[in-house]
Amino acid sequence: MAKRCPLPQGRGRYVRKETDVIRWGGKAWRTLALTLVCLVGWTVPGSAQDHPKLDKVLNKRAGQVGHSKVIITLATGFDAAGELRKIGGKPGKKLGLIRALAGELSNGQLKRYADHPGVASIHHDRPTRGELNRAAVTIGARAVEHQWGYSGAGVGVAVIDSGVTPWHDDLTYSGTSPLVRTVGGQRVSAFVDFVNGRLLPYDDNGHGTHVAGTIAGNGFDSRGTRAGIAPAAHVVSLKVLDAAGRGRISDVIAALQWAVNNRAAHNIRVVNLSVGAAITESYRTDPLTLAAKAAVDAGIVVVAAAGNLGKNAAGRTQYGGITAPANAPWVLTVGASSHQGTVTRVDDIMAPYSSRGPSAIDFEAKPDLAAPGTGIVSLSDPSSAFYLSRAAYLLKGSVTTAYKPYLSLTGTSMAAPLVSGTVALMVQANPALTPNLVKAILQFTAQKYNYDALTQGAGFLNALGAVQLAKFFKTAVAGDKYPSNKSWSKQIVWGNHRLSGGVIKADGNAWALNVVWGSASDAHGDNIVWGSRCDDAACDNIVWGSVAFDDNIVWGSVRDGDNIVWGSAANDENIVWGSDCAGANCSNIVWGAVSDDNIVWGSAEAAENIVWGSGGTIEGYVWGTSVALETPLFEDPNAEPANYDVSVFENLFAAETTASTVTTVTSSVTGILGGGF
């Protein structure tokens, strides 16, 4: 690795890259002189650190967290298995044909083991079949595992849903990492039943099992092809939905309380809420959203599905269908996209059913980002209601099983766990991340399509970019080159303002636990500052501690933030819901107007025209099923699982995205076909 060039000490700021001097502490440093200083002792990047006995992949992973499957080629007379056990490794198959042994080592032990004189070389035991289902390849989750070995090991994800299957091969673990938690052979570290009070895991509905598999399935029954996003994370299953997929918000609140009380014992860093309820009051007073805030204040990232109310009963696009607790600013709200049955991101589109913002009553910009939610394949439970009612969407695996182990479902319920799994990978890479910083990284690295921010949020999920930036923040110091990729949105949605033209600072006060997302100031009354202005394309030499106002991105300033809902007289700076209004007269998009055109709810009074659920308004209920949605099958349910190559992930991005923009609502809302998330 190249030797880091230290910056001079003292207060000052980095001046634009193209200038011929750098000023620091009032002194001028000639660019040429600084360059010569940096070149002293410089070596080819990586050459001094690479171990000659490790292949390229393992050299990248060496010293990092996590474990790697390896193949060890041996010197004559060397007992590889015995030595492997001495340093905590797990020996596997003997490969006598090439004098080698398969096994598993922690990444921190790779160089130590390679130093042994009896080891000829160590290679990554890379998979020969698929790299997971389409969604995981499309968002870059498998690329994360391929490049850095992150698998979510040690990270607990609380799934507040309908429970979890008592047994599934894809929830087992056969590795040696001491971080991975299992109970009875399953990576389900705890199960609490708030519905029936049963003690052992079960899922009479099937929704929770699907969600858990999307997050943490390891693909055992498909030889790895249908693995989840964080295949070594452990699940905390908190059952709040009954066999019909319904429950009470009081049980959701109790489950959130349990997660907060037991977060240390199970290292719960993420809560997944693929459930939702009607918005009947402001998020400032709603017990459900306030319970979610308490979890966020405790350092837990709360991920919630946006809802499936993107269309009205006539099939027309509508805005304003976000559900609770996804309406709260402190919650990470996920809308749904569709990968269209392909791996490439070029043809990805927003799912028409995905709920759009703004939120009812408070009129807040939501969702925060979008992730694949259409035709998502995950785990089935043969004893669940879904196994019978969704029989046409069951899929076989690659090994012989007593039942079809996989199920395809559609909804923002399926999109949310893709984000939850990504958060587990981010936290494994950088345990110091706060919920606000997690959201900012996800938005900043998302891929922006041609949809308005009330439809897609900051863009489509990019797990590889999110983990890359989270990993960078763990060790970044002044002078380090900021990661960048042409596909990143390089923006965040702070409250109702879209901010761009800068980069996220790891020490920004916006990321503190006591700061509500979108606030103008922190608890000390200081203006919220989320980043530094970016004066060159690569944002080189970002100084994390910079306090110069001119160099910082401050929320809400006219220069730095476009309004997403209302508030600016300049129409070209507004992202106006429901209309592509380009003229001075936008009378038809005044909130609560009686005109039939461009009205989301047709009333400003508590979203009167939204019918929450298939049976009408059901106050106090939550639901999590996807039965109201048509689920496309992108593959033959009786065929071998399809396989995809993760090595070309960067090529999945197009130079420019050209998805269609949806901006116009053509009629008032008369009802919603609903129920599912």
What coarse outline follows from CA principal-axis ratios? Answer: globular
Helix/strand class: alpha/beta
Return the average pLDDT rounded to an integer: 74
Which ranges are low-confidence, i.e. pLDDT below 50, for 5 or more consecutive residues? Answer: 1-48, 127-132, 541-550, 556-560, 567-628, 644-650, 654-677
What fraction of residues sit in β-strands? Answer: 15-25%
Radius of gyration: 25 Å
Largest sheet: 8 strands, mixed
Q: Please tally the β strands and state the result.
A: 25
Distance between the termini: 47 Å
State the helicity in percent bands.
10-25%
Separate helix tally: 15
Structure description:
Helix 10 (287-297) links the parallel strand 11 and strand 12 (301-305). Helices cover 19% and strands 17% of the residues. The model is unreliable at 1-48, 127-132, 541-550, 556-560, 567-628, 644-650 and 654-677 (pLDDT under 50). The protein is globular. The relative contact order is 0.12. By secondary structure, it is α/β, with parallel strands linked by helices. It has helices at residues 31-39, 56-61, 80-86, 110-114, 134-139, 141-148, 207-216, 249-261, 263-266, 287-297, 385-389, 412-429, 435-445, 453-456, 463-475; strands spanning 21-24, 27-30, 67-74, 90-95, 100-106, 119-124, 156-161, 188-193, 234-239, 246-248, 268-273, 301-305, 332-338, 349-350, 369-372, 376-379, 394-395, 406-409, 491-494, 497-500, 502-504, 529-533, 552-554, 561-563, 621-623. Strands 7, 8, 9, 11, 12, 13, 14 and 15 form an eight-stranded mixed beta sheet that branches. Strands 4-5-3-6 form a four-stranded antiparallel beta sheet. The longest helix has 18 residues, at 412-429.
